[in-house]
Amino acid sequence: MEKPNHEQWSSKIGFILAAAGSAIGLGAIWKFPYMAGTNGGGVFFLIFILFTIFFGAPMLFAEFIIGRRTQKDAITAYKKLSPNTPWHLVGVIGVISSFVLLSFYSVVGGWILSYMVRSLTGDLSGLSNEQYGNLFSQIISNPWEVTITQLIFLIMTIAVVQGGIQNGIEKANKYMMPSLFILFIILVIRSVTLEGGMEGIKFFLMPDMHEITSKTFIMALGQSFFALSVGLSVMVTYGSYLSKTESLPRSVTSIVSLNIFISLLAGLAIFPAVFALGFEPDSGPSLVFIIFPAVFEHIAYGSVFFAIFMILLLFATLTSAFSILEIIVATIAKDDVGKRKKVAWISGILVFLLGIPAALSNGILADFKPLFNKTIFDLSDYFVSNIALPTGCLLIALFVGLKIPKAVLKEELLRSSSASTKLFTVWYWSIRYLVPIGIVIVFLHALGIIQV
């Protein structure tokens, strides 16, 4: 029996928008375009779609099953399903990793705020390509600007999460996600109608099989996990607020479809414009902050469209930040609604303090490289993306496949659903065998053991 004060999503659409918002974030809008641009374009997108369906979706099912079955936070959920075992450490890893993730994720959120303000005031107009690069370096190296904007971003996140599931996260996503889609459609229409934009469309939507390499598969597989927010038990937390009457297959299908659709829109918004104006699609992580402003500078009313893009990027970044902070707050506050506001603020301030070294990593702490010749920012990113996330994915897959009885899994997956038992059979085989093998491959590549 779940506690009467255990919060729940008020509607299916509220849950889907929140979960999709968590998944989309920087993964789809910032990381996906430059990953596609540096790994073959259309062929990367095709393989990404296949891996999202056959690897990412099974992991999403797994986390939702754990959360909805127990109606508990990320640590207690594992304790409830496997008492008196160390499996709850999977949740501990997720919570600790979420602290680290949000500490540097909020720094990027601060950069986005800086760019958004400048785009709205017109300060980004009339710059040369070189000046855009210099501006980015200037912003991320300014200690006051990066810490203040990081703090503002976190305050925005805390303000929503403190309100709870229905009145905070769900309500914010119901406004932000539709706005995000509308803004995206506007950008896509402008981008694909540029003269010369067809080359970008071909690059993104017409797979060139000659571009396939082993690296393409590795990167697409890693992106499929990253893009759906699986591995840190974030979706265990969101799943715990899901009603027993909702269909998991329909929910997962909706979230995966939205994620792929947003990735499609991201590619159509960026690549036609990049090709039309003679830029290179393989510009890497700087695509959004250096290349994209330069692209818009060459478009009629470009400053307006770039401002729209930065607002869109801020919305997407915030919807992900809500879910990352929520796993922390839910774990500490448990089901005590009265504690939520206090826990949200304390947790948010701790994240801010933890993130200050990451914020200063491109400025006064640029030469401080404690491990692997990496700055604090890069080290935090490396820990989450290459160690914590694949480790969490592997442990969750093993936990679900080995520790939860098959009958329980089948009951939870098919509850309130018209899906056939064939779906369960395929999913069960995937989570026990296919997914762990894929995760191990990504993990070994991330550690440099497998070279491509």
TrEMBL record:
Keywords: Membrane, Symport, Transmembrane, Transmembrane helix, Transport. It holds the Pfam family SNF. It is found in: Membrane. GO terms for cellular component: membrane. InterPro entries: Na/ntran_symport, SNS_sf, YocR/YhdH-like. The chain crosses the membrane at residues 12-30, 42-66, 87-113, 146-165, 177-197, 217-243, 255-279, 299-332, 344-366, 386-405, 426-450. GO terms for molecular function: symporter activity. It is a multi-pass membrane protein. Its main location: membrane. PANTHER family: TRANSPORTER. Belongs to the sodium:neurotransmitter symporter (SNF) (TC 2.A.22) family. This is Transporter. It comes from Schinkia azotoformans LMG 9581. The lineage of its organism: Bacteria, Bacillati, Bacillota, Bacilli, Bacillales.
